[in-house]
Design a protein that fits this description.
- 60% of the residues lie in helices and 2% in strands.
- By secondary structure, the chain is mainly alpha-helical.
- The protein has a two-stranded antiparallel ribbon with strand order 1-2.
- 22% of the residues are buried.
- It starts with 5 loop residues before the first helix and ends with a strand.
- The chain is flat.
- A hairpin with a 2-residue loop joins strand 1 and strand 2.
- It has twelve helices and two strands.
């Protein structure tokens, strides 16, 4: 390879895409199948080093490592300061190499939000023997605990779509419906509890960051965030219990008015 082509080769080693006419791009894409004894950076231009050698640092960084380091960076600097430039520096790679895994910063944030929910996603699903009221409380509390595990966890999660958690959500809905909760009420209660939790944690995490905040009035009572959360959650559950009981009573009345499959007039 001529010396004049070296800068272009370095750029090709950082990007996943290459034209069909570019054999160097093909070599960079296949380098992860080759064992490299040296841990060289993508900027290594030492004599005799190949494109594969300069690309090896990228191959040692996989998608999971990028997400994990991004979440650690979030904990250190906060959501407003997370950037692909900072993340690339933390990983020891060039910033464009991150495009191999995430085409935009928004794609990265979406993956971070999904990974941050791992503790809640690993919680046991409800069983037919569970009391739906107790489960509803425990499920919402688990969600809150998980959001609080990460700095700005509520902001990171807000607006994200649980694309990989749809099966678990369906099974939770099925459990509530099988327990007697009207389907529409179950959907709206889960949505209300989720949004209430995100808002509650958002306020709690904002309150924990004293920067650019003025002191509250001396006569303003201190807010205990956990107590306030529990009170609000109880109100949501009480409303759902009331609607479920009303629905059951209505169905029972209909059954009493029906004889032999025909409604009594």
């Amino acid at each position: 390879m001529s010396t004049a082509r070296e800068p272009e080769s370095q750029r090709l080693a950082c990007y996943p895409a290459a034209s069909n006419k570019d054999p160097q791009g093909a070599r960079s894409r296949s380098v992860d199948h080759v064992h490299h004894p040296k841990n060289l950076s993508v900027n290594d231009s030492s004599p005799g080093s190949s494109i594969g050698d300069r690309f090896v640092n990228v191959t040692k960084v996989n998608r999971e490592i990028v997400i994990s380091e991004a979440l650690d960076l979030l904990d250190e600097v906060g959501l407003d300061t997370v950037s692909t430039r900072r993340l690339a520096k933390r990983l020891g790679v060039e910033q464009p190499s991150l495009y191999w895994y995430f085409r935009t910063k928004n794609d990265l944030l979406t993956a971070m939000a999904e990974a941050a929910m791992a503790p809640h996603a690993a919680a046991p699903l409800p069983t037919p023997d569970d009391d739906w009221r107790d489960w509803f409380l425990d499920n919402t509390r688990s969600f809150r605990r998980t959001l609080l595990m990460r700095r700005d966890g509520a902001r990171l999660h807000a607006g994200s779509t649980p694309a990989t958690d749809l099966d678990r959500i369906r099974r939770k809905m099925d459990f509530l419906v099988a327990s007697g909760v009207p389907e529409r009420d179950a959907q709206m209660a889960m949505l209300a509890a989720g949004r209430f939790t995100v808002g509650s944690v958002l306020e709690e995490q904002a309150d924990a960051d004293p920067s650019d905040r003025s002191d509250p009035p001396a006569d303003m009572p201190a807010i205990d965030h956990e107590s306030a959360f529990e009170a609000g959650l109880t109100l949501i559950l009480d409303g759902l219990v009331h609607r479920t009981a009303a629905r059951a009573a209505s169905l029972s009345a209909d059954d009493r008015l029906t004889t032999g499959g025909r409604r009594v007039q």
